[in-house]
Amino acid sequence: MSNWNGKKIFLGGGGGAGHSNNTLSTGGGNGGGIVFIRAKNLVSNNTRISANGGAGGGSVSDGAAGGGGGGTIILNVTNYSGTLSIETKGGNGGNSNDGGNIKRCYGAGGGGGGGGIFFSGGIPAATIANTGGNAGPETSRDPACNAAVPALAGNTGTTFSNYTYRTSLTPSNYCAGVPLPINLLYFKALLSDKQNVLLEWKITDASAESFIIERSVSKNNWVAVSPVINITENKIYQFTDYKPIEGISFYRLKIIDPTGSKYSSLQQVNIIPALERIRVYPNPAKDKITIEGDLKDSEIKFLSVEGKLIFTSHLSSVQHKTEINLPKLSPGIYFLKINAEVRKIILR
Fold first, then answer.
1. Which of 114, 201, 208, 256 is most deeply packed, by most CB within 10 A?
2. Nearest Cα to 97, choosing from 64, 126, 122?
C-alpha cells in the first residue's frame, strides 16, 4: 500500500484498563480489527461494514477504562451499489462513579480514536463514520475535590482515496500469525456465566473428516479436551469445556482431513478465580448490602478501616445470594471480608 511506505496497516489499539476495586470492570475497550474487501461489484443490501473500537469499562470509586481505537477498512472495489455504511469509530470512554467519597475523586476513561478507511478509487456515495469516541463522564463528585481533569474524546480518523497496493505470493518475514485453514470460516471461544467455555466453529465444506479441541496454558504443551468429533452434514459445530483452567488459557481446533492435520488460530480465555467470583452491592451503601456468588460455608466479617471487628456471620447452607442489614455506623470506609477475600465498602 502507499500508506507507511507500503508496509503497514493497523488494528485499533485497545483502551487503557482503568482500575476498579469494588466491582469487576470490563476493562479497556477492544480495538477495531482490519477488514479487507476486494471485489468488482459491492452490493450493500443495506448492511454495514465496521471495524469499530469497543467501549471502555466503568468503575466505582476508581479510575475508569478507555475506549478502544477504531480499526482499518480497505476497499478495493470497482463498482458500489445500494446504501453503503462504513464505520471505524472509536469506542466511548468508561464512566467513573466517584460514589460521593469525601475528597476522593477519580478519572473517567478517554475516548478511542477513529480509524482509517481506504478506497482504491474515489470516495463513493456512502455514509462514512470514523469519529473518535466520547470521553466518559465523572459522576457523584465531591465538590471538595481539586479541580477536575476531564477525560478527552478520541480524535477523528482519516479517509483515504485513490490508494494503491501491491500483492505478493511471498509472506513478509514479520508475519508470524497462523492463517485459518481454507475450509474454516471461524473458530471462537465464549465464556458463560457459569465459567464454562463454549467453543464454536463453522466450516464451508466437508473436506475435513473430524475435529479435536485442544487446550494449553503456555501455547506449547497442548492437551485434547474433547473426544474426536466426526464430521456431519452440519456447518456449525460446538463443544463445551466444563472443566476449564483458572487464569489465562488458550484453545485451538485441530482439523483432521485426508492430507493430515491443520490448526485454527488461537482463542484466549481468562477464567476468574473462584475467590473473585463474588459481587457486593450497592457500593456505596447505606443500611444494607447484598452479596452474590459462591457463598457455601463462607465466613463473613465486617471491619472498620482500623481493622476492628464490627460483626461476623457464617453461611453454612448452599447460598448464592444473601442480604445483610448493617448496624448504624458513621459514614466512611469499611472492609468486608468473605473468607480470604477482602472488599472495600463505602458507607454514606
1. 114
2. 64
Place of cell 456447518: 235
d(CA 49, CA 85): 6
Give the up-direction half-sphere exposure of residue 83: CA atoms within 13 A in the CB hemisphere.
2
Domain extent listing, the chain:
1-173, 177-272, 275-347
Q: What is the mean pLDDT of residues 231-260?
A: 89
Contacts of 245 (CB under 8 A, 6+ apart): 215, 217, 271
Angle at 8 between CA 4 and CA 13, to 5 degrees: 110
Q: Classify domain 177-272 at the CATH class level.
A: mainly beta
CA separation for the pair 106, 172 (Å, rounded): 45
Higher pLDDT, 168 or 150: 150
Q: Cα(324)–Cα(319) distance, rounded to whole angstroms?
A: 13
Task: Give the residue from 128, 136, 137 showing the smallest Cα distance to 156.
Answer: 128
Dist CA 345 CA 67 (whole Å): 27
90 closest CA partner among 14, 170, 165: 14
Of the candidates 291, 271, 295, 273, the residue with the CA atom closest to the CA atom of residue 343: 291
Digit-coded pLDDT (tens) for 33-78: 899 888 888 888 778 899 999 898 888 777 888 899 999 999 988 8
Confidence label for 227 from pLDDT (cuts 50, 70 and 90): very high
Q: Where are the alpha helices (DSSP H) in the chain?
A: none
Nine cell digits for residue 214? 485442544
Q: What's the CATH number for 275-347?
A: 2.60.40.3080
The angle subtended at Cα 155 by Cα 149 and Cα 161, nearest 5°, is: 175
Residue 283 has pLDDT above 60, yes or no: yes
From CA 213, how far away is CA 211, in angstroms rounded? 7
Contact 291, 278 (CB under 8 A): yes
For residue 303, the cross-strand partners are: 309, 335
- Residue 27, pLDDT > 90, answer no
The C-alpha cell 476522593 sits at 104
